[in-house]
Amino acid sequence: xxxxxxxxxxxxxxxxxxxxxxxxxxxxxxxxxxxxxxxxxxxxxxxxxxxxxxxxxxxxxxxxxxxxxxxxxxxxxxxxxxxxxxxxxxxxxxxxxxxxxxxxxxxxxxxxxxxxxxxxxxxxxxxxxxxxxxxxxxxxxxxxxxxxxxxxxxxxxxxxxxxxxxxxxxxxxxxxxxxxxxxxxxxxxx
Length: 190
Fold this sequence. Notes:
The chain is an alpha+beta fold.
C-alpha cells in the first residue's frame, strides 16, 4: 500500500503542462528512425501559478507528452488513491463483521478480492437450534412446518423438544451452512 502521508503539503491541483513538442526530422539516428521532436526539448509542469518541474523529450514525443500529463495528474491520482484506501478499510471492516457472524462471502469461503485473501473459519461458529413443529401431520411432512422456534442453547432446545406435545417435530442443529437433524418424532411411530 502506498504511504500517502509523504505527499502532504504538495502543491494543490490543478497542475498543467506547458510547452509544445512537434514531430520532425532531427537529423540523428533514433529508435524511431530519426523522427523525434523539434522546437522545445522539454515540457514543464505548473500548478498554482508555480513551476513544479520539467521532463525532457528523451523518449520521443508521444511518450514524453504522456509522461508529462501523468505528472500533471499526480494530485488527482493521489486523491483517488486516498479515496480507494478509505473504501478498502471500510470493506475490510465489513468483511470482519460478516466473518464474526459466520457469513461466507463466496463458494470457497474466500472473498474474491485481488491481492486479498481472507479465510473464513466456520469452526468457531456458534450453532443454532431450530425446533420445527407440525401440529396435525403424523407422516413425514411435505412442505413447510406450522411453527419454528430457534434456540442458541442446546440444553434449552432439547428440553423444549421433550416437553412439546405435537403430531410431528424435528430438532435441527445448524452450524455454518450445514443443518443436521438431532431428533425426530412422529405420533404415528408410537
